[in-house]
Amino acid sequence: MSVSDEELDEYPDGSVKLRNPHIELMDQDILYHLALGSGSHDLVEMFRDVKFVCMGGTPRRMEMFAYYIMKEIGYKLPTGTTLMDISQYSYRYSMFKVGPVLSISHGMGTPSIGILLHETIKLMYHSKAKDPIFFRLGTCGGLGVEPGTVVISDDAIDGLGNHSYSVPILGKVVQRPCKFDKKLTRELKALADPEDPYETTLGTTMCADDFYEGQGRCDGAFCDYSEADKLEYLEGLMKSGVKNIEMESVPFAALTNHAGIKAAVICVALLNRLKGDQVCTPKEVLNEYQLRPQILVARYIKKYLQTK
Ligand code: R2B
Ligand code: URA
């Protein structure tokens, strides 16, 4: 059975619908990589109030984001409790919950975030959360932008230039279109403050399946092209509207869109790839850069919560 977009749009209560008829026929659904399950946990009680799902690469960064957003939205943990990694016993991803905000680490690359998206979308379905908005807060290499620039993705392409996520399913390649919510990207861009000591810009994001050769670097263990070939390639990408390169935007855009979930990707550029390959910015500077997508998303969340 397949569910069309039109059918998906028919659910006005905002709850997340699954395009998988098998799930509701199962006795229980084990979200293996999150160490949660519909039989073992009261997912409705635990997650029904989730409004924002924020994902980023590392457990540490997402724990820090959880503390930061707690302060920003003035959320108090229930008396006698501390912030816990809900998925700690999966030993795969980390998940923190701060009121309406989930902060989850996604690891590196499309398979890792793909698995997490399957299970997080199912988590939203089981928990009956209403209209959750997904954000990826990440890092990237910039193309022709200053290090520290924040790039909001308005499109995502894979390493072959496809605007879709290609997944081999039952021996055939299935392509799912990458689509971001235009209104959400516009609203995020509008939250950039002219006083911010860095630029915030919109652009196409290229999602590579590798950090080295897949991003045209010359500093991997292998390289069969010249520096000139690399620059020709990167400049060509830039001319076609690509502002940054990272490793998760394609499945993020495609799977959230397939699930009817609003989503955005906000990344900070650690370097300008037209000027080099190695990330040689000092650690303290990188740590400050990594807060920038968090600051933008916190502004969005605060504004959203104030108007509700
Ligand atoms: C950005 O940074 C990571 C690689 O260093 C990868 O997860 C990404 O998208
Ligand atoms: N992450 C990437 O995927 N590429 C970069 O160049 C920097 C961070």
Q: How does this model look, in words?
A:
The chain is α/β, with parallel strands linked by helices and 308 residues long. The chain contains 8 helices and 12 strands. A 5-stranded mixed β-barrel has the order 6-11-10-7-12, surrounded by 4 helices. The longest helix has 24 residues, at 283-306. The two termini are 37 Å apart. The model is unreliable at 1-10 (pLDDT under 50). The structure holds 1,4-anhydro-D-erythro-pent-1-enitol and uracil. Uracil is lined by residues 139-141, 211, 215, 245-247, 270.
What is the first-to-last residue Cα distance? 37 Å
Bound molecules: 1,4-anhydro-D-erythro-pent-1-enitol, uracil
H/E element order: HEEHEHEEHEEEEHEHEHEH
Beta-strand content bin: 15-25%
The proportion of residues forming helix, as a percent range, comes to 25-40%
Q: What is the spatial order of strands in the main beta sheet? A: 6-11-10-7-12
Total of DSSP H or I helical runs spanning 4+ residues: 8
Question: Averaging pLDDT over every residue, what do you get?
Answer: 96
The shape is: globular
The count of strands amounts to 12
What are the segments in which pLDDT stays under 50 over at least 5 consecutive residues? 1-10
Based on CA atoms alone, the radius of gyration comes out at 19 Å
How would you characterize the largest beta sheet?
5 strands, mixed, barrel
Classify the secondary structure makeup into a structural class. alpha/beta
